[in-house]
């Protein structure tokens, strides 16, 4: 049976092409993000500037999320993703030009900084479309009975790119500098666009084409709030990511606390993704759908503990291990959450549900970066990270106590129902 085959989704040709597109795209995106972080902190030496990067991305990503979900449910997914990638290439090109000494010679630091923030803002606008489009497209490529397996490999690919992108980005800063690192990123974005065209256009499964925006958004939000499993997973992960945003402060730890330079920064930045990737490979062989609620609570509790250890550490290898194990626990959380979303979301509402998810979880990464920048500025870097980890622990304990139905969440029957349906 398909559920016993850890490679079920990988036997579908278009899914493999999709994974390659996502790998190249996320590799470039994650590499670009840490190159920008490094450049901005090098220009300002102000932790608040790192938080502003997150704020500039979250404002458009959050405010446009629901409308983007509506558009995704109304449009053909392959071409919409191609359009998003083409627009993203303009951002990469702009950042490349902004770090070209011949062009910006004589520019004030503030002008360069604001220009970077402006491109990040545009990236946040695109991000509101990326998540729902990718989430909807993968559901049109694989059959429902292997959604959990596809979610595992999809998340694993995302994490693998998250491992290699930041690591290569940190190393490339030292090897070839910020400017040429951004040139590589521009090339990767163009490559992802070319690969995507190998996937055929997909049917639009929404029977309500032309529905008013207001009615469409109302239905999407109501569905999420009525589906307790989806709402609980989104809320729990949102708070954990919001207060556990130590990653945004890594340039400070790398430069000022651990003193490991750009190479060490790249390794630290990659450590959580390495841990998450290993976890996701394991879940391809050992499904975690049974007792999913308790496993999700335990994973996020472990994540909070790891963040506290990282914040208190001044030893490089201890910090590295703390980030590694934070990634392992986060990997469990990601697989469970993606499985819940894929299984419990109807085909005609995937764009809108994914958009709500991006508002809860995706945008909280950037809001968490802003929160970390603010708390680091006024509480100190170490205190800010410990505070975030502590808030994560409090959130998990509170959720477990007030929501017994979430503790009992089990996805086994849902998966079996999809197998019978197919």
From TrEMBL:
Keywords: Cell membrane, Membrane, Transmembrane, Transmembrane helix, Transport. The chain crosses the membrane at residues 15-36, 48-68, 80-100, 112-141, 153-173, 179-199, 229-254, 266-286, 298-325, 378-402. The keyword Transferase does not apply. SUPFAM superfamilies: MFS general substrate transporter (SSF103473). It is found in: Cell membrane. InterPro entries: MFS_trans_sf (IPR036259), TM_effector (IPR010290). It is a multi-pass membrane protein. The keyword Membrane applies. CDD domains: MFS_MefA_like. This is MFS transporter. It comes from Flavivirga aquimarina.
């Amino acid at each position: 049976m398909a559920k016993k085959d850890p490679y079920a989704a990988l036997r579908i040709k278009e899914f493999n092409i999709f994974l390659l597109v996502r790998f190249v795209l996320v590799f470039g995106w994650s590499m670009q993000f840490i190159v920008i972080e490094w450049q901005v902190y090098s220009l300002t030496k102000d932790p608040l500037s790192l938080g502003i990067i997150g704020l500039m991305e979250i404002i458009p990503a959050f405010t446009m999320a629901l409308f983007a979900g509506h558009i995704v449910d109304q449009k053909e997914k392959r071409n919409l993703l191609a359009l998003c990638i083409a627009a993203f290439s303009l951002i990469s090109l702009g950042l490349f030009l902004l770090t070209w000494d011949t062009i910006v010679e004589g520019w004030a630091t503030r002008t360069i900084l604001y220009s970077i923030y402006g491109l990040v803002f545009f990236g946040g606008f695109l991000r509101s479309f990326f998540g729902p489009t990718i989430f909807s497209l993968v559901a049109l490529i694989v059959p429902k009975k292997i959604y959990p397996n596809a979610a595992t490999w999809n998340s694993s690919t995302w994490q693998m790119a998250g491992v290699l992108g930041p690591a290569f980005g940190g190393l490339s800063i030292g090897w070839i500098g910020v400017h040429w690192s951004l040139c590589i990123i521009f090339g990767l974005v163009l490559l992802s666009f070319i690969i995507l065209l190998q996937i055929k256009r997909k049917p639009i499964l929404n029977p309500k084409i032309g529905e008013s925006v207001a009615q469409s958004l109302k239905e999407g939000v109501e569905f999420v709030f009525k589906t307790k499993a989806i709402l609980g997973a989104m809320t729990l992960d949102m708070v954990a990511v919001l207060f556990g945003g130590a990653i945004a402060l890594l340039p400070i730890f790398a430069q000022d606390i651990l003193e490991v330079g750009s190479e060490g920064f790249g390794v630290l930045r990659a450590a959580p993704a390495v841990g998450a990737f290993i976890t996701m490979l394991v879940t391809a062989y050992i499904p975690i759908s049974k007792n999913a609620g308790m496993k999700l609570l335990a994973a996020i509790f472990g994540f909070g503990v790891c963040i506290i250890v990282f914040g208190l550490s001044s030893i490089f290898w201890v910090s590295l291990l703390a980030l590694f194990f934070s990634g392992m626990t986060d990997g469990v959380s990601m697989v469970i959450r993606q499985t819940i979303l894929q299984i419990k979301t109807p085909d005609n509402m995937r764009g809108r549900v994914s958009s709500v998810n991006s508002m809860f979880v995706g945008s909280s990464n950037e809001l968490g970066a802003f929160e970390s920048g603010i708390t680091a500025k006024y509480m100190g870097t170490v205190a800010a990270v410990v505070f975030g980890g502590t808030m994560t622990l409090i959130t998990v304990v509170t959720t477990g106590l007030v929501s017994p139905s979430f503790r009992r969440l089990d996805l086994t029957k849902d998966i079996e129902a999809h197998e019978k349906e197919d």
